[in-house]
Amino acid sequence: MATIVSADEIKKTLPNYSPNRAEEFHHESARQADKQFSRELKISKEQFVILMNGGTASGKTEFLVTHLADEQCVIFDATQSTVDGAQNKIREIYHAKKKPIIYSVIPDDLNRAFNAFLNRDRKFSDTHFYRTHAKSRETLLWAAKRYPDIEINLIQSSYANQKLQFSRLVFLNRNELIQYLESIQISETDIITLLT
Description:
Largest sheet: 6 strands, mixed
Strand order of the largest sheet: 1-3-2-4-5-6
CATH class: Alpha Beta
Mean pLDDT: 95
Structural class: alpha/beta
Distance between the termini: 42 Å
């Protein structure tokens, strides 16, 4: 079984937390998740560490639960929407003499993901959606170029037959992966325009 570190799960343990005020608790839950992640790297005997990547409401946690939870590894469930944050996590993993693996979940339709974001219990400002979707893609492209030795798995989420589904995107080589990531870069302004 995987050891999963999730800021969203930590939020639920914070005093006075309520889902409709989730954004107010995000900084503290992220801080605690970082500390928990550092502890797990030190005590875990597992050699593999999965970093989740992708904008909020993209289907990351659902994919993790249905496809990765039984793996023998440590999993950090977050958007990875800053290069600095991702770089710090990767350095920590290497320092612990473990192997990082990235799983990025990218929705086939940002409108669908935005509707899911608006209708879930955990409430955040719309800006959070725009930022995490734009910046997680930027971070992923940076990681693909900066760390050619890190395995990167791209998963497309889609909705069919009233169910969230996942399919792996396959690339012949790293260059093809990078070209694809370059083709899906999008700014926060572009996302706002797309959704309005």
